[in-house]
Amino acid sequence: MTDSTDIRAFVQGSPHPSWLSDSDGRCIYANPALERLTGADARQLEGSHWLDLLVGEDRPQARESWQESRAGGRSLRIRVCIRGTSPENNYAPVEVIGFGHYVTEIGELWVFTALHLHEPTHQHPPLEAQLQATLNIIPVQAWYALASGTIAFVNEVTASYLRLPQAHHLRYGADVGGTRESHLSYIHPEDHPHARMQWSACLRKHEVGELQLRILCEPGSARWFLVRAEPLRASNGELLFWVGVNIDIDDAKRAAEALDMAKERMTRAAQVATIVELSTSISHEIVQPLAAVVANARAALNWLSSESPNIDRAKNAIEGILRDGMAVGNVIHEMRRLFKQEEPNRSIVQMNDLILQTLKVLEPDLRDRNIVVSLNLSTELPHTEADAILIQQVLLNLTRNASEAVLERVSGQREIIIRTLFSDAEITVEVEDTGFGIATPDRIFEAFFTTKDEGLGVGLSISRSIAEAHGGALVATNLEDGGARFSLTLPRSFSPSGMM
User: Fold this and answer.
1) In sequence order, which residues have a C-beta less than 8 Å from that of residue 486 and are 6 or more positions away?
2) What CA–CA distance (Å, rounded) separates 187 from 213?
3) Cβ proximity of 472 and 482 under 8 Å
């Protein structure tokens, strides 16, 4: 849709006899040039059919051509004679060019321009006049260039944006000896290399071209545009002109840049958060064995410093120091190997034994919290092939999560149930709690998603990655009577799939 006010302004300013008509062909506006040609004023012309402007013998052909143009949605181009004012020369041979538009308040509106066939050769040929008339009505920036690549004309929207003076040659399509790079003066200097390369490619290949660049609008200011140029050819394939449009994408471009910057900041923040959370996770895994090392060291000193040294008890304490010290080393070694995405260090393990070892580490904490652990371990559970240290990290994480879940209950028994199951292809460890369940079980394994006041929720995400690296799975479900169940499934015969 276009505005009839803009079209009327164009007709008014046209140096050629021009007029507007409705869909029935009745004139609704005529410019001064048409008044001079016909000798009739605007009031006489308005309301008459435009075909009445022609000499009698040309009307049938003109009517038929116009009807075909309307039916086919094409512009009209026909040579006829308009009735003139001079008795000795009562007609003027012209080429009438007409094209239809739809405007908001009127509907179909036709714009006609009459070009004198006997005008000097320096006047615009009909095709250029039609191009200029059409481009001036388009409500976006539009232009055309010669086949050589020199910009010859810009429409009123473009001229207004570029702040061109009224007498500027680009407003009238005048050839002032420009070059195919003359337009670069209107483009941001940083975009010159790209614009030059793309325009040269279009001219060389005679193909449609498209690029994004910044067009200057005033000193120190520019906006982003999507520029598209298409070749206009004659019926024999000869390249006549290049026709282009500039679509303003500045707001969208800047919004996209702002979004990219925000994503980059979020990525950096996530990286920092990951480092912090992983450091916290590692420290959490080694604090307890280190505390045990310190406790055993003090006990050993006490047993050895007494008046009657107890060598056996001191020996047991020192053995505990060695055991817990090796456990700390294993945690650091295995986490380091996990981050380097190395394959699990597989060995034949008994899952029931790993569970009992895990509970032995957590026993003091569970006892202090009055949490009961009920075991339902299959006595016929087969061995499996897995990385014992990594699987223990998963068991530690699941048991700690279960203990935190049952602490949410003020009353009732605080119980964790651990069971083992197996089938021909896999073994399963289930860890159940008597808490209130998981509000969003489908998101609980997402990195940085957490329902806790502290922490960033990396533990379960890493646990699932460890399970998947073993060819298994880790899933969470809510129980009907409250609480949640985490199921760790591992294949009995392990085939590595790579870490995370």
Assistant:
1) 398, 401, 402, 430, 431, 432, 474, 475, 476
2) 7
3) no
> Per-residue pLDDT tens for 346-399?
788 999 999 998 888 788 778 878 889 999 999 999 999 888 888 888 898 898
Residues 358 and 468 in one domain: yes
pLDDT digits (tens, 9 = 90+) for 254-302: 888 887 777 777 666 655 555 555 565 566 566 666 777 787 788 888 8
Last residue of a domain, one of 315, 339, 363: 339
The residue whose two tokens read 């000097």 is 120
Which residue range is the domain that position 487 belongs to?
347-491
Helix (H) or strand (E) holding 279: helix 250-305
Task: Give Dmax (Cα) for the chain.
Answer: 146
Last residue of a domain, one of 317, 339, 361: 339
How far apart are alpha carbons 89 and 373 in whole angstroms? Answer: 115
Counts for the chain of helices (H) and strands (E), in that order: 12, 17
List Cβ neighbours of 180 (8 Å cut-off, separation of 6 or more): 145, 148, 149, 150, 199, 203
Q: Is residue 15 part of a domain?
A: yes
Among 409, 406, 337, residue whose Cα is nearest residue 374: 406
Q: Which helix (H) or strand (E) holds 415?
A: strand 415-422
The neighbour count for residue 266, using CB atoms within 10 Å, is 10
Residue 131 inside a domain? The answer is no
Nearest to 116 by CA among 16, 35, 32, 18: 16
Residue 27, helix vs strand vs coil: strand
CATH number where 418 lies? 3.30.565.10
Per-residue pLDDT of 453-484, as tens digits, reads 443 334 677 788 888 888 899 999 998 878 88
CATH number at 300 reads 1.10.287.130
User: Rounded to two decimals, what is the model's pTM?
Assistant: 0.38
Amino acid at 57: E
> Phi/psi class of residue 397: alpha, beta or left (left: φ > 0; alpha: ψ in -120 to 50)?
alpha
